[in-house]
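Marked as duplicate of an earlier ticket. Keeping the data here for the record.
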Amino acid sequence: MVSSAPIAAPMNSRTHNLTDKTQQIIDRRRVANVAGTQEPEYGPSAIQSVAKQAETTPYTELQPQDLRWEAMESTCVETQTFYLMAEDGHIGMTQVIYNNVA
């Protein structure tokens, strides 16, 4: 038998006083959780400055394990960015993006 229960829980006194925009965000998050498409939470610690990292480790040599992808079995996007320094002082950057839709 198929249930006719709603995907999102009904409003209660706790959510009744929220703004429409906040309620929309909560509703989208509920649907994403049911559909399995939820986004991770990012905070200030998720953003790293290359300049700050270079203070302690200005560069490292590329190793084979640096080129391995996580290759998760779920929908995901992986990005690897490499900064290159030539002997004549030129600097370059290359970015490789891998994306998997499960």
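See parent ticket for discussion. The two ends are 28 Å apart (CA to CA).
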